[in-house]
Amino acid sequence: MAENWDLNTLWLALRALFPISFSAQDLINEVGEVGALDSEFVLDRVLADARRAYEKRESELSAPIMRELERKILLSVLDKKWREHLYEMDYLQEGIGLRAMAQRDPLVEYQREGYDLFSAMMDAVKEQLVGHLFSAEVQVEGDQVGAKGLTPTPAPVSQLQYSAAEIETTSSGETSRNAPCPCGSGKKYKRCHGAS
């Protein structure tokens, strides 16, 4: 069975996800021949290498930055994939009536295919999350370490400036009828305190 594996394509797909540190030939050399490879051995080696790459990435960035990066990437990927999923569900809903002509229950078919689409979406989210996590560029500025899109540090309170809204007044010093009411309700003066 292992003789039929396309290890080069597998390694190309793995390199797209994370920086794998060994080649397919290294695995073959470790077990002796291609026929001796089994899926469990390959999976264990790849998972161990993925954990090593993740821990290396986390040590480069620091744990809090890594958590923030994970959160931002997950939200971005999930948002994109969820929108695509909703479009696919709309498309499925438009064509599901044709299943009745094929003597199939449209509701059951819609549920089954909807679940399949949802499962495919979740798999794509996981795959893109891992790929983006290892390929995201992180910028270091001075004492602060931040990644693109991470929450900026808030300005100190002493630098914030507040200003009150200007109230339109007439030449006699009264509030204009169409100006916002000075009480802060958001209504026009004529509909609030000027109504009397």
From TrEMBL:
Biased amino acid composition, Polar residues: 166-178
Annotated Pfam families: SEC-C, SecA_SW
Domain annotation SecA Wing/Scaffold: ranges: 3-136
Cofactor(s) the record lists: Zn(2+)
Organism of origin: freshwater metagenome
An example Gene Ontology molecular-function term: ATP binding
Keyword Zinc belongs to the record: yes
GO CC, one annotated term: cell envelope Sec protein transport complex
Extent of Basic residues compositional bias: 187-196
Keywords for the protein's UniProt record, in alphabetical order: Cytoplasm, Metal-binding, Zinc
Annotated region described as Disordered, given as residue ranges: 166-196
GO biological process: intracellular protein transport; protein import; protein targeting; protein transport by the Sec complex
Keyword Metal-binding carried by entry: yes
Name of the protein described by the UniProt record: Unannotated protein
Cited InterPro entries: SEC_C_motif, SecA, SecA_Wing/Scaffold, SecA_Wing/Scaffold_sf
